[in-house]
Amino acid sequence: MVNLEDLKNEAHKLLKEGTVKYIIGYERGTNGLLPIPAFIKNPEDVERLIWDPTCVFNLTRFLVDEKRRKASEKEPDERPVGVIVKGCDSRALVVLLQEKFINRDDVYILGVSCEEAGVLDEKKLAKTLKGKKAKNIEFTKNDNFVVMTEDGKTEISAKEILAERCLECKANFPVIYDILLGEKVKRKSDKPFGSLEKFESLSKEERWTFWKEQLDKCIRCYACRSVCPMCYCDECVADTINFAVTADTTAEEKAQKIKWAEKSPVTSENFVYHLVRAIHLAGRCIDCGECERVCPLDIPLRLLNKKLEKEAKELFDYEVGFDPDQPSLVSSFKDEDPEDFIR
Amino acid sequence: MEKILTKKSFPQWVKKLSLYKIYAPVRDNDICNLEAIDNPESIDLDCSNTVLSPKKIIFPQREIYLEFETSDENKLQVKEILPEETPSVIFGVRPCDAKALTLTDKVFSGDFKDPYYWKRRNSTTLIGLACNIPPSPNCFCLSVGGSPHSKEGLDILMTDLGDKYFVESLSEKGSTLINLAKPLFQQPKAADKKAVEKTQAEAEKKIVRQIKDIKKIPSILENMFDSPLWDKESLSCLRCGICTYLCPTCHCFDINDEVSSSSPVKGKRVRTWDNCQFPDFTMHSSGHNPRPDRSSRLRQRILHKFQYFVELYKDYQCTGCGRCISKCPVGIDIIEVLDKVSDYGS
Ligand code: SF4
Ligand code: SF4
Ligand code: SF4
């Protein structure tokens, strides 16, 4: 079991000795149980850190901000940034390293294992508690969560309230780390692509109807893109200005740039946005589920990414996020790669 | 006009309004949306507050201004498009969302009365539902001049009294809707009025969140443009559009030409929602961006709502609906930010 005190002690030491410039972790927020990302600089502030099943965020997203900030500084602090990662988050870090977006020397990885559990799905929890408010929630052994509500303690089977991705997690402990807290044990009874089953049984027409209905709800707030550690492009085809403009860009150059997707939230444009995003995540999405969690309209975005993950596995025997030295899926080629889908 | 309507008769009332387009909260698994409905049975008035407010109907995310096309002689022809005036009714409007429309009214009036906005606004009747239980744990209407049973901006206010509604008409538009189904409504008894008063008093007590020192905030903000607070509070901001798109009072828009064919040139000029949290919102054509970072964008959101709007219209541009707090992916909490602003001033 991960002991929060150990985590705090490690963080304290790193800050005190000046090994890292700051640590990205979790702390309690003000919106119910949802934590907020903590950026901790002073050793005494490690007291704010928390670690429990509410720690859903993939904090590696903030390494993207850090890289940009550092690039804009005249005399940047060259020390690494400490970041707390779960299993899934660590796989995101592997992709960022594999793509050379981040240097290994720039991060100090504090790995925490979800051990036999994972993180919770707020909506599932709310349904299970039927209006009661959770005040605190802890892991226990025996695949249960202990939830404190105003009526006292209740034990809820982890399965009932775990995030869908955790039920399908390939390794719920970090695959890369400088320090590891907790044990490398894996949840049992996992179905790696379980959520796809229902979806794959649909006909082509049914799938079209399903996705049209879902994507028509999209208001293009781009939270799904903004929360994603893999969506680090400076220029995104979805934005109105999707190319770098400088004082030297001529009017002609600007006029010739293609507008890939209009701002209008209509079927065609929403599909362009979502398909571009899905394709750009093939072989890169590590299934932290953040896009789906943040979507205010509850669009099941994970399904798209999961499907591509499965295709990558079946067609190219490619598994994402375990080896930073592995060539990336879309920029590498093997003789035995199937070609039957290229016509 | 004050009436009583049993919950059993409610669907019949909706049926009687067949001349109107009806919008109401409907449940979609874990969330509630405001949708056009055909069947009164699909209305769910027990919903938490809807993901988007009635803003999405009165000020839709996409509005076509005009269509253009070049003729054979290569002349540009332009056709103005105005929304049809479809008489509409929105059920289940929360008091904060009705108040929000009164704020947007101010923005779309003034020197120029926006015809798109006002055509929809004038043809819509708003039927409110008092919040006996706060529909969100982050409701704070009491701090910004509202209340869970405020009538501002509404045509009718309904209060849930268990097996019946207390229905109060607040405008001519409202009375028309009641008169269309007169036999369904009864006269309220003295006990009903007492029950309403009691429910309302209790409702206020259930609102737990509040802003510490709202009155002082506009003047404190005047001196906070260069404060380090913005940097600190926006560290985790993802620059997504949730807080602004979901806000019932945010009203910024963009205008684009959507060209569907280049020869002959053909297309539409459309207005779509835009928002100050997107990095390209203030991007100049030179490449210069006066609000280049998350800190200047959070500052804009707060200053617009609690300083500039107050200077212009003598009211906060926030009605305390709590949406931006509940849905922010990283838990940025406008109440917390404002409380830190007050601390800053003292
Ligand atoms: S997906 Fe795996 S590693 Fe990530 S939170 Fe769930 S169990 Fe933990
Ligand atoms: S988070 Fe949801 S609503 Fe926002 S852009 Fe993504 S899919 Fe659309
Ligand atoms: S600022 Fe937030 S709380 Fe205020 S009206 Fe807008 S969404 Fe609601």
Describe the model.
The complex is a heterodimer of chains A (343) and B (346). Chain A is α/β, with parallel strands linked by helices. Chain A folds into two domains: 1-119 and 171-185, no CATH class; 192-337, no CATH class. Chain A is 34% helix and 13% strand. Chain A contains 13 helices and eight strands. Chain A has helices spanning 4-16, 61-72, 87-98, 122-129, 158-161, 164-167, 196-200, 204-216, 223-226, 251-256, 267-280, 290-294, 301-316; strands at residues 23-28, 35-40, 81-85, 107-112, 134-139, 144-149, 152-157, 179-181. In chain A, the strands form two sheets. Chain A has a five-stranded mixed beta sheet, with helices on both faces. A three-stranded antiparallel beta sheet of chain A has the order 5-6-7. In chain A, strand 5 and strand 6 (144-149) form a beta hairpin. The longest helix of chain A is centred in the C-terminal third of the chain and has 16 residues, at 301-316. The radius of gyration of chain A is 21 Å and the shape is globular. The model of chain A has no long low-confidence stretch (mean pLDDT 91). Chain B has 346 residues and is of the alpha/beta class. Chain B has two domains: 2-55 and 84-205, no CATH class; 214-260 and 274-344, no CATH class. In chain B, 31% of the residues lie in helices and 22% in strands. Chain B has helices at residues 10-16, 55-58, 95-107, 115-122, 172-179, 190-205, 217-221, 229-233, 242-246, 294-313, 323-327, 334-345; strands spanning 2-6, 21-28, 31-36, 62-70, 76-80, 88-93, 124-129, 156-160, 164-169, 253-262, 265-273. Chain B is flat, with a radius of gyration of 22 Å. The mean pLDDT of chain B is 95. The interface between A and B is large, with 45 and 46 residues. One iron/sulfur cluster binds next to helix 3 and helix 6 of chain A.
